[in-house]
Design brief:
With about 80 residues, the chain is an all-alpha fold.
Amino acid sequence: MQKEELDTKPWYKQFWPWFIIALPMTAVIASIATLIIAIQNPDYLVIEKSDYQNISAEMRPAQKTGISAKKTEPGQPD
């Protein structure tokens, strides 16, 4: 009879545990790299100058733009 050799190396000296650990770690590293790229290069809203003027005018308070903020009664024309 042949004597079976037992693998007595500790787990950290084996190939397969490190291979299994490496698979999810590559996904984690890739997602962190993607996050860094996304933070450093944000997408800006592309609008034309006339649209920008309309949007900024809508964002200003009514008092500064001179628009009256009076309330109208229901049923009355503006």
